[in-house]
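Morning!

This is the sequence you dropped in the shared folder:
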Amino acid sequence: MFKKKKDFMNPNTTDTLIGEGTTFEGRIKSEASIRIEGGITGDIECAGDVIIGENGVVKSNISARDVVLAGNVQGNIITKGKLTITSTGSLQGNISAASFIIEEGGLFQGNSKMDSKTSTTAPIQNGEQENGNKPASSANGTFKGNTVAM
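The structure's back. C-alpha coordinates below.
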Protein backbone atom coordinates (compact mmCIF):
# COMPACT_ATOMS: atom_id res chain seq x y z
CA MET A 1 0.00 0.00 0.00
CA PHE A 2 2.77 2.44 0.88
CA LYS A 3 5.44 0.94 -1.32
CA LYS A 4 7.34 3.42 -3.43
CA LYS A 5 8.98 2.69 -6.72
CA LYS A 6 12.66 3.37 -6.47
CA ASP A 7 13.50 5.95 -9.11
CA PHE A 8 17.05 5.85 -10.37
CA MET A 9 18.85 9.17 -10.43
CA ASN A 10 20.39 10.49 -13.61
CA PRO A 11 24.13 10.93 -12.93
CA ASN A 12 24.14 13.87 -15.37
CA THR A 13 21.95 16.00 -13.07
CA THR A 14 23.25 17.91 -10.05
CA ASP A 15 21.16 16.78 -7.12
CA THR A 16 23.25 17.96 -4.18
CA LEU A 17 24.73 21.39 -3.50
CA ILE A 18 26.84 22.23 -0.46
CA GLY A 19 26.66 26.02 -0.52
CA GLU A 20 29.27 28.59 0.42
CA GLY A 21 29.30 29.15 4.17
CA THR A 22 28.07 25.59 4.83
CA THR A 23 30.28 23.01 6.57
CA PHE A 24 29.44 19.31 6.39
CA GLU A 25 31.06 16.44 8.29
CA GLY A 26 30.29 12.85 7.32
CA ARG A 27 30.17 10.46 4.38
CA ILE A 28 28.23 11.37 1.22
CA LYS A 29 27.00 8.76 -1.25
CA SER A 30 25.05 10.01 -4.26
CA GLU A 31 23.72 8.63 -7.54
CA ALA A 32 23.58 12.13 -9.08
CA SER A 33 26.26 14.81 -9.38
CA ILE A 34 27.43 16.93 -6.44
CA ARG A 35 28.58 20.56 -6.39
CA ILE A 36 30.60 21.81 -3.40
CA GLU A 37 31.02 25.52 -2.70
CA GLY A 38 31.45 25.16 1.07
CA GLY A 39 33.44 22.78 3.28
CA ILE A 40 33.28 19.00 3.61
CA THR A 41 35.18 16.62 5.87
CA GLY A 42 34.41 12.99 5.05
CA ASP A 43 34.46 10.61 2.10
CA ILE A 44 32.48 11.26 -1.08
CA GLU A 45 31.22 8.43 -3.29
CA CYS A 46 29.36 9.65 -6.35
CA ALA A 47 28.06 7.86 -9.48
CA GLY A 48 27.93 11.23 -11.26
CA ASP A 49 30.35 14.14 -11.32
CA VAL A 50 31.83 16.06 -8.39
CA ILE A 51 32.45 19.78 -8.92
CA ILE A 52 34.38 21.71 -6.29
CA GLY A 53 33.95 25.47 -6.69
CA GLU A 54 36.60 28.13 -6.09
CA ASN A 55 35.56 28.53 -2.44
CA GLY A 56 35.16 24.79 -1.82
CA VAL A 57 37.42 23.17 0.79
CA VAL A 58 37.29 19.38 0.90
CA LYS A 59 39.19 17.10 3.29
CA SER A 60 38.20 13.68 2.03
CA ASN A 61 38.72 10.90 -0.46
CA ILE A 62 36.58 11.31 -3.57
CA SER A 63 35.32 8.59 -5.89
CA ALA A 64 33.32 9.83 -8.90
CA ARG A 65 32.79 9.60 -12.66
CA ASP A 66 34.47 12.96 -13.41
CA VAL A 67 35.89 15.59 -11.04
CA VAL A 68 36.36 19.33 -11.68
CA LEU A 69 38.48 21.01 -9.02
CA ALA A 70 38.54 24.81 -8.72
CA GLY A 71 38.91 24.87 -4.91
CA ASN A 72 41.07 22.94 -2.45
CA VAL A 73 41.12 19.18 -1.83
CA GLN A 74 43.21 17.29 0.71
CA GLY A 75 42.68 13.60 -0.03
CA ASN A 76 42.79 11.02 -2.78
CA ILE A 77 40.67 11.20 -5.94
CA ILE A 78 39.57 8.20 -8.01
CA THR A 79 37.71 8.88 -11.26
CA LYS A 80 36.50 6.56 -13.97
CA GLY A 81 36.80 9.44 -16.40
CA LYS A 82 38.49 12.83 -16.23
CA LEU A 83 40.01 14.89 -13.43
CA THR A 84 40.38 18.59 -14.23
CA ILE A 85 42.28 20.93 -11.92
CA THR A 86 41.51 24.51 -12.93
CA SER A 87 43.84 27.48 -12.55
CA THR A 88 42.44 28.14 -9.05
CA GLY A 89 42.40 24.48 -7.98
CA SER A 90 44.71 22.76 -5.51
CA LEU A 91 45.03 19.02 -4.80
CA GLN A 92 47.18 17.46 -2.10
CA GLY A 93 46.73 13.73 -2.53
CA ASN A 94 46.98 10.88 -4.98
CA ILE A 95 44.87 10.39 -8.09
CA SER A 96 43.73 7.53 -10.27
CA ALA A 97 42.04 8.66 -13.49
CA ALA A 98 41.66 7.80 -17.17
CA SER A 99 42.33 11.44 -18.12
CA PHE A 100 44.09 14.18 -16.12
CA ILE A 101 44.16 17.90 -16.97
CA ILE A 102 45.92 20.64 -14.99
CA GLU A 103 45.38 24.20 -16.15
CA GLU A 104 48.20 26.72 -15.77
CA GLY A 105 48.22 27.91 -12.16
CA GLY A 106 46.61 24.73 -10.80
CA LEU A 107 48.50 22.88 -8.05
CA PHE A 108 48.97 19.12 -7.60
CA GLN A 109 51.09 17.41 -4.95
CA GLY A 110 50.92 13.64 -4.94
CA ASN A 111 51.17 10.59 -7.16
CA SER A 112 49.10 9.92 -10.25
CA LYS A 113 48.02 6.67 -11.87
CA MET A 114 46.47 6.69 -15.32
CA ASP A 115 44.05 3.87 -16.05
CA SER A 116 42.77 3.16 -19.52
CA LYS A 117 40.60 0.47 -21.05
CA THR A 118 43.01 -0.29 -23.88
CA SER A 119 46.75 -0.50 -23.84
CA THR A 120 48.43 2.15 -26.00
CA THR A 121 51.97 0.84 -25.77
CA ALA A 122 53.49 -0.66 -28.87
CA PRO A 123 55.31 -3.98 -28.65
CA ILE A 124 59.10 -3.76 -28.51
CA GLN A 125 60.70 -4.53 -31.87
CA ASN A 126 63.90 -6.55 -32.19
CA GLY A 127 66.95 -4.41 -31.60
CA GLU A 128 65.04 -1.63 -29.75
CA GLN A 129 65.90 -0.84 -26.17
CA GLU A 130 63.14 -1.05 -23.62
CA ASN A 131 63.27 2.71 -23.08
CA GLY A 132 63.44 3.42 -26.81
CA ASN A 133 60.05 5.17 -26.87
CA LYS A 134 60.71 7.28 -23.78
CA PRO A 135 61.96 10.88 -23.87
CA ALA A 136 65.70 11.17 -23.31
CA SER A 137 65.14 13.00 -20.03
CA SER A 138 63.26 10.03 -18.56
CA ALA A 139 65.48 7.27 -19.99
CA ASN A 140 67.54 7.13 -16.81
CA GLY A 141 64.46 7.26 -14.56
CA THR A 142 64.82 10.89 -13.45
CA PHE A 143 63.11 13.92 -14.87
CA LYS A 144 64.46 17.34 -14.07
CA GLY A 145 62.13 19.82 -15.68
CA ASN A 146 58.69 21.32 -15.62
CA THR A 147 55.61 19.29 -16.45
CA VAL A 148 53.04 21.18 -18.48
CA ALA A 149 49.53 19.90 -19.19
CA MET A 150 47.59 21.41 -22.05
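Headline: Residues 118-125, 127-146 have pLDDT under 50 and may be disordered.

More detail when I'm at my desk.
O.
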